[in-house]
Design goal:
By secondary structure, the chain is an alpha/beta fold. The protein folds into three domains: 126 residues, Periplasmic binding protein-like II (D-Maltodextrin-Binding Protein, domain 2, 3-Layer(aba) Sandwich), CATH 3.40.190; 77 residues, 3-Layer(aba) Sandwich (D-Maltodextrin-Binding Protein, domain 2); 97 residues, ACT domain (Alpha-Beta Plaits, 2-Layer Sandwich), CATH 3.30.70. Helices cover 42% and strands 27% of the residues. The chain has twelve helices and 16 strands. The strands form three sheets. Strands 1, 2, 3, 4, 5, 11 and 16 form a seven-stranded mixed beta sheet that branches. Strand 1, helix 4 and strand 2 form a beta-alpha-beta unit. The longest helix is centred in the N-terminal third of the chain and has 36 residues. The chain is globular. Its main location: cytoplasm. Keywords: Amino-acid biosynthesis, Aromatic amino acid biosynthesis, Cytoplasm, Isomerase, Lyase, Multifunctional enzyme, Phenylalanine biosynthesis. Its EC number is 4.2.1.51, 5.4.99.5. It holds the Pfam family CM_2.
């Protein structure tokens, strides 16, 4: 076949793709109508992951050329367009446009929904509570810094719950208006500079490092000042019109976990996790008794965080607070029995959300 023949075939395939995508959109529209009539959530994270896994396996069986990463990226946008068709979906996230949380949110919801940047964790909770946003995206854990306590503490006082979680590999890029050899100084958030210190020392030993209040602001500075560069996200580079001159420059791989904040727990899938807050009397063996209650019913406690009880609460001097992530869904009988044992021992429990387990994302 000649080049022109191949291009004609590509045009034919594109026409078929467009027809099938619109056919799929019609079906999605019907799904949205059914969900609204039955009061179901539009966003179904477990259904999405099952769909992606099925498509990836089908591609392997057919010996398709597309790698898993490409299939996920393509269908992420198809699913995003479907969400926008079912409902004018609004996603609130913490941080300015181009931040890590913004990029993570797009990796989960795609580019077809509306994103609402917020200045604080409180603002994200407020948007979701008042239904100005359908869901919120917040960091809850980082591989180098541990738990994000602001997020955990706000879950205690809010009726909102964790509806979904996702795990995401963060990647710092170096962006600039010009080529690498014209850079005289580099902007970056202090924490990001520290994470890339070895790489910067090796590749830019004579360049001045300048601190910025955020990665988004660092990108804005680099856009405004010639002969400069910035450390930040690929999304930040795109939004500022900067070129990525180096990627994956972190000294060690960095991973983060984010939650999708909603108004109810997600439906049970058979492969779920639940986040709990337990307030116990400060006594010898308190944590051991709590853990035993779960172990006796075959519940795995995956994570434990200890937080002080706020001083304004009457129990602040006599009680201690634990955040536990356990296997199972809050509606599972085994987990219900474990919680009953803990409550009968005189401890207080709040369920902060049940959600499908999630693989690492890109």
């Amino acid at each position: 076949m000649t080049l022109e023949d191949v291009r004609i075939e590509i045009d034919r395939v594109d026409q078929d793709l467009l027809r099938l995508l619109n056919e799929r959109a019609d079906l999605v529209h019907h799904v949205g109508e059914i969900k609204r009539k039955e009061g179901l959530e539009i966003y179904a994270p477990d259904r999405e992951e099952r769909l992606l896994k099925k498509l990836i396996e089908l591609n392997k069986q057919n010996k398709g050329r597309l790698p898993e990463k490409s299939i996920r990226a393509i269908y992420r946008e198809i699913i995003s367009a479907a969400l926008a068709l079912e409902q004018d979906m609004r996603i609130s996230y913490m941080g300015p446009a181009g931040s890590w949380t913004h990029q993570a949110a797009i990796s989960r919801f795609g580019n077809s929904v509306l994103y609402l940047p917020e200045a604080s964790t409180e603002d994200v909770f407020e948007r979701v509570t008042t239904q100005e946003a359908d869901y919120g995206v917040l960091p809850i854990e980082h591989s180098t810094e541990g738990a994000v306590h602001h997020t955990l503490d706000h879950l205690v006082d809010s009726p909102m719950q964790i509806y979904s979680q996702f795990l995401w590999r963060t990647e710092t890029v170096l962006m600039s208006n010009g080529p690498k050899d014209t850079v005289d100084y580099i902007y970056g958030h202090p924490q990001v500079i520290a994470q890339c210190r070895k790489w910067l020392t090796h590749n830019f030993p004579d360049v001045e490092l300048r601190e910025a209040p955020s990665t988004s602001q660092a990108a804005a500075f680099a856009c405004e000042h010639p002969n400069s560069a910035a450390l930040g996200t690929a999304l930040g580079a795109e939004l500022q019109g900067l070129k990525i001159i180096a990627a994956s420059i972190d000294d060690s791989a960095s991973q983060a976990r984010f939650i999708v904040l909603g108004r109810r727990p997600a439906p049970a899938t058979g492969n779920d996790h639940t986040m709990l807050m337990v307030t116990a009397r400060d006594r010898v063996g308190a944590l051991l008794e709590i853990l035993k209650a779960f172990a006796d019913h075959g519940i795995n406690v995956r994570q434990i965080e200890n937080r002080p009880v706020p001083v304004e609460e009457s129990a602040s001097q006599t009680h201690v607070r634990f955040f536990l992530e356990v296997t199972g869904h809050c509606h599972d009988e085994a987990l219900k029995k474990s919680l009953d044992v803990v409550i009968n021992d005189g401890d207080a429990i709040k369920i902060l959300g049940s959600y499908p387990s999630s693989p690492w994302g890109e």
